[in-house]
Amino acid sequence: MHEALFQPITLGAIEASNRILMAPLTRGRADVPGFVPNAMMGTYYRQRASAGLIISEATGISVEGLGWPSAPGIWSEEQVEGWKPITRGVHEEGGKIVLQLWHMGRIVHPVFLGGQPPVSASATTAPGQAHTPTGKQDYAEAHALSVAEIARVVGDYRHAAENAKKAGFDGVQLHGANGYLVDQFLRDGTNLRTDEYGGPPENRVRFLREVLEALISVWGADRVGLRLSPNGETQGCDDSDPAATFGAAAKVAEDLGIAFLELREPGPNGTFGATEVPKQSPLIRSIYTGPLVLNSDYDAASGASDVESGLCDAIAYGRPFISNPDLPERIRIGAAFAPNVNVPQSWYFPGPAGYIDYPALEQEAVAD
């Protein structure tokens, strides 16, 4: 059933056995202090290794870039050692996994930074409140990165990519979506700069290009992916001309020859409150000629249809993978998806409940 999803696909240097990718999913189960990956996370990823490719949860590249309670990092040796058994477990199950590299920019609350302000393209403040270890708190105004500081952040990305290689990943994906730092540089609603990093789209993609070049210097272009969210407003991050902005971003991806480009294009009820706007994937498809992966709100039939039609080359499933560790097998035999329970608390709460206790099909059969 849905044969289009079960054809192998080449994503740069990564050979994926199917086109059902696991989308990055923040789950908040790392050990603190230290934001260190642990054995429970190893079980979680091993359970889902039948995905053609796992894109890991967003992982902080630096102390400055991580502002989510109990999310993992990749800047320290301890974190690298924590990731090693996780990647080894996925590989032992025959799977592939890339690490998503994350800098949250202005979405980091000062409580994570010893009271210092977060950083961004410009001195702006995100709307709403941040999740912190002591509850929700108002966001703070960001410090606008200087040109010298931008170079330092690019270096932080390079260091994180080097650590990802040490940890045994198959590659990396740059998180350029959802209103985080790269997105804050891309969109004119949050990038108010007048220097070479601001103004027209060709300038606003400069930071994206420099970070991708840094990752490529470590991994090669054929093991570097990118995630974009070319939709409407996301965490207060918006753009007056998405076609121009994300067309320019797609050209960067094309020029650098990256392994794959993933687009998050949610409907009006998306996780980050994205509005229903014209989708930019057809435009991006016309510019970026590498493997295109689409994400958000897909079921088995719609995913297979979009791959079969040529709209994209693979589908990244997110929330269905939370409660269906064996999602490809369920799609293959036409089984119903198990529902998420205790949502959204179980997405982020610590502990195994709602994390590694969802049964695979054969376990359900035994229970019945």
Unreliable runs, pLDDT <50, ≥5 residues?
A: none
Mean pLDDT: 95
Strand coverage percent: 15-25%
Number of helical segments with 4 or more residues: 13
Q: Please tell me what the overall shape is.
A: globular
Question: Radius of gyration over alpha carbons?
Answer: 19 Å
Q: Going across the major beta sheet, what is the strand order?
A: 3-14-13-12-11-10-5-4
User: Strand count, sense and closure of the main sheet?
Assistant: 8 strands, parallel
Question: Descriptors for this entry?
Answer:
globular, single chain, two-stranded antiparallel sheet, alpha/beta, 368 residues, 8-stranded parallel sheet
Structural notes for this entry:
This protein has 368 residues and is α/β, with parallel strands linked by helices. Helix content is 34%, strand content 15%. It is built from 13 helices and 14 strands. It has helices at 39-47, 77-92, 147-166, 181-186, 201-204, 206-219, 242-256, 281-287, 300-309, 319-323, 327-333, 345-348, 361-367; strands spanning 9-11, 14-16, 20-22, 54-60, 97-102, 119-120, 129-132, 135-138, 143-144, 172-175, 224-228, 260-264, 292-295, 314-317. Strands 3-14-13-12-11-10-5-4 form an eight-stranded parallel β-sheet. It has a two-stranded antiparallel sheet with strand order 1-2. β13 (292-295), α9 (300-309) and β14 (314-317) form a beta-alpha-beta unit. α1 runs parallel beside α2 and α6 (206-219) packs parallel to α7. It is globular, with a radius of gyration of 19 Å.
